[in-house]
Design a protein that fits this description.
By secondary structure, the protein is of the alpha+beta class. It is built from twelve helices and five strands. The chain is elongated and about 60 Å long.
């Protein structure tokens, strides 16, 4: 255990007996996972259980378009038909308030005023699963992205549970800030591939094949082709003679067509879907390409 992980043992007086020991071990696993020593998915599941929650989700939200991406989930009691909500719910519940969230702050849904909105999808899921409380823990918040944990509890938070969260959250946030480079990208891709394994198989054709299984438009195909060849978003814009905003607009359409959670996953999918077509005139467009 590193210094930050040990710190929770000295600032967790509300925890007693087995609960205290389990939580310290869960935090230790969390720290190890953030530095590549354990599988993040497994460590996160233990952390959620240690906090007394029935289910949880680790989420990164890209603030430019408010697009949330699952990094890890824990829902041991969920059946296939009623697992965690498909989309993270933090922004739907707390709205604009969350955009100003401080790192290591705790957001409890039951403290909201009735007029502050809410999420019908979350309420429906809570009723189906017998959940009574929704809590968000902010791990990081910057100009480009916010990372947070969403927790679901079967009962309203007790004083001891609130004290437990207050004791461990600063350590969670500090160790998250010092995590191993590339950890989020690897886990997002791994999580998506695992989720895809339970869905009907995608078409066998590579995304950049002449068959064009994702039904890219001509402009979208060019963007994907250049990304697969190693260009950045700015590089693609320069190569095509368009603005960065135009490329990002194409990317939003591409994400929807490929079910990719972001640029890193898209490039992974493009490179993993067989060889990229050889360069040709007009940015490598094959003459018989089937375009949407």
């Amino acid at each position: 255990m590193g210094r930050d992980c040990n710190a929770v043992a000295h600032h967790s007086a509300p925890m007693t007996g087995p609960a205290r020991g389990d939580m310290i071990e869960a935090i230790a696993d969390w720290c190890d996972a953030l530095h590549g020593g354990l599988v993040l998915q497994d460590a996160f599941a233990r952390l959620v259980a240690g906090l007394g929650a029935a289910a949880g989700m680790l989420v990164r939200t890209h603030l430019a378009d408010m697009r949330p991406i699952r990094v890890a989930t824990a829902d041991p009691d969920g059946a296939a038909a009623d697992l965690l909500p498909v989309q993270p719910q933090a922004d739907a519940v707390f709205g604009a308030h969350l955009t100003r969230a401080r790192v290591a702050s705790v957001w409890v849904a039951s403290t909201l005023d009735q007029g502050d909105g809410g999420s019908p999808a979350l309420q429906s899921w809570q009723e189906a699963r017998g959940m009574a409380e929704f809590v968000v823990l902010v791990l990081a918040s910057g100009s480009g992205a916010r990372d947070h944990v969403e927790l679901h509890f079967r009962d309203p938070l007790s004083d001891s549970e609130q004290a437990l969260i207050a004791a461990v959250l600063p350590t969670m946030a500090r160790t998250w800030a010092a995590r191993q480079v590339g950890l989020i990208t690897r886990n997002v891709v791994s999580h998506r591939l695992l989720a895809d394994s339970s869905r009907p198989a995608r078409p066998a054709e590579p995304l950049l094949s002449i068959a064009n299984p994702a039904h890219f438009s001509r402009a979208e195909f060019r963007v994907c082709l250049l990304l697969a060849r190693g260009l950045s978003v700015l590089g693609v814009a320069a190569e095509l003679g368009v603005s960065e905003a135009t490329v990002r607009s194409h990317l939003r359409a591409i994400y929807a067509k490929t079910d990719a959670g972001g640029l890193a996953e898209l490039v992974f999918r493009l490179l993993d879907s067989a060889a990229v077509p050889a360069p040709r005139p007009a940015y490598g467009m094959a003459p018989a390409l089937r375009l949407a």
